[in-house]
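Quick look at the format.
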Amino acid sequence: MTGITLVMGSGGVGKTTVAAGTAALIAQSGLRTLAITVDPARRLADAMGIGQASDPTRVAGFAHLDVAMLDAAAAWDDIARRHADAATARRLVTNPYFRAVADRFPSGQNYAAGETLLHHAESGSYDHIVVDTPPAEGGSAFLAAPRRIRTLVAGRALRVLTGPRLPGRRLVYSVTARPALKVADAVLGGRLLEDVAEFLLDLSAIYPGLARRSRAVEALYAGAGLVVVVTPDPGPIAEARRILSHPSGATRAPRAVVFNRVVPHAWTKAPPAPPDPVGANLSRWAAEAARHEALRHSFSSHTGVTPIPLPWLVEPPASPLALADLMRSAGFDPGLS
């Protein structure tokens, strides 16, 4: 069975870096590993050999590590083709409202990541998959996305607008409602009402298949290990606490909490410095190191989880090997046993 690690947290805390380091560390143990990433920094993308394609690519220097970029739009196209007949799928992928769900809505991107994860887990090609979760709406929204999408497609409003799922419903729509909508759109000077009606009708047609897949995604999440990434800042800390308090479907306790970009504790013991700009700067760094230490202790006392500190570095590591070494030196355990 494929193991799953979800790397979660607010945007900008270093989730992609931690996900890449975790995947590299697991791959070094000999497991066939895939890292699914969202939007890595250019240096990290170059180091890992990530192109624009969403297909897994082997990372140079690693026999067991592949990496793939999340392409939410392509994932939603696959969803339409998987759950609808050819004609319905063609209409959906060209409908502007379906494209908005695929390209712009945070829940759409979150669910696309889950479908991509499920696809690779079912392929049997990997022993372990590490997911750099999308930052939109915070980590909790990622775990809730399958239920949200299922509720959207099966919602009461959609049923009222499209009617019951009966054979021949599209023919009834074409004969009765569509001509009236065409007249209304002609008055408005566009295809607004017709596009909306087509979208809702076709969206309801994919519900049975999407409901099955979304529940399978939820089952994957329930067995996944969570790695929560946080920085010594109020917003990321609050989001990490929300994830730990309301895991939204994850039945396991978080595998680790990583405090990223921490000023080393040793800096709190800076020797007395002369009253010049250099000395003043050393004093400020010592105060910042003390603040970070206090935040880690406060976080641990409130959550019962002892965070793993990753140091602030002038030049962050930008290769999978260096990232694996950084995670190992910090005492990070991927929890594979």
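Next, a different chain entirely:
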Amino acid sequence: MSGKALGPMRAWAAGALRAFWSLWALWALSAPWALGALLAGATIPAAAQQPQASYIGEKACLGCHSQENRHFADSLHAKMFRLNPRNAREERVCEACHGPGSLHAKDNANKELMVGFTRGWGTPVQTQNDMCMGCHQGGNRLHWPGSTHAGNQLACADCHNPMERVSLTSALVKPTINETCQTCHRQQRVEFNKRSHMPLPEGKMSCVDCHNPHGSSTRPLLKAESVNMLCTSCHAEKRGPMLWEHAPVRESCMNCHQPHGSNHEKLLVSARPQLCQQCHSPAVGHPGQFYNASQTAAAGSQLGGAPSPRTIGRSCQNCHSQVHGSNHPAGARLQR
């Protein structure tokens, strides 16, 4: 193609590129996280501003809210805002989060005149979160827009209480991370009480060791790209690669294990050998259904027979001990 023919095409491509970047910039500036970034200094979100409202200072707030101040005085926010404010917004203390209070002081029954951080107050969740994101943007909250919690209209104040020191860290509404999460995730609370469970009730780990409640690139808010990458961050001996791999292990740890708790040993989804028989039912070698009620230890003692060695001890793993994979040259059947 000649240079004369390429000229109009180049001009058109340049114009299209400029239009694309213009539209992208317009969208970026209108996004909530971008708005929070612009407001990280001394201003507050536009949705929380009242046209006629003005700042009246912390002393005016304390004239009515002395009880709230007794709880707030020991909190991390109070110490930061009062002793070491980073900018003009933090110097306003109460009004840094609740917005200018002149109209609220005149008509404290009208809940639309200031930002409240409770469900009963009625301030939209997005407005509440914009106030928080004005300072707490980026970092662990990078994936908050579009996350499961954001999509379910969860407000920051549903999990955090910046007005009172209830927890030692993170300004939570409950004393610990686990208690805060289990307020909503009751099914997981039940699973952690089963006989085989992750050591969360014992205090050896917490929900945030595996999950990022503020959002991640995975659907269950994992702190890794996949279930296996998360599990092997602690269970490194199961990571591999193995010379002889076990296909379901390679696919997902959850094929065999429950992530929170189980009534079977080692967090298994079902007892052995039934767990193994879900996949292994060969036409040759072991019979397809080699376990039945007459082969258990209890039935053997009553009927005078011997229990099957495949139903006692570690069952299939009595022989196939390297169930997660083997690096032995003769370990094709995961026996060594």
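DSSP finds 17 helices and two strands in the chain.

See the schema section for token definitions.
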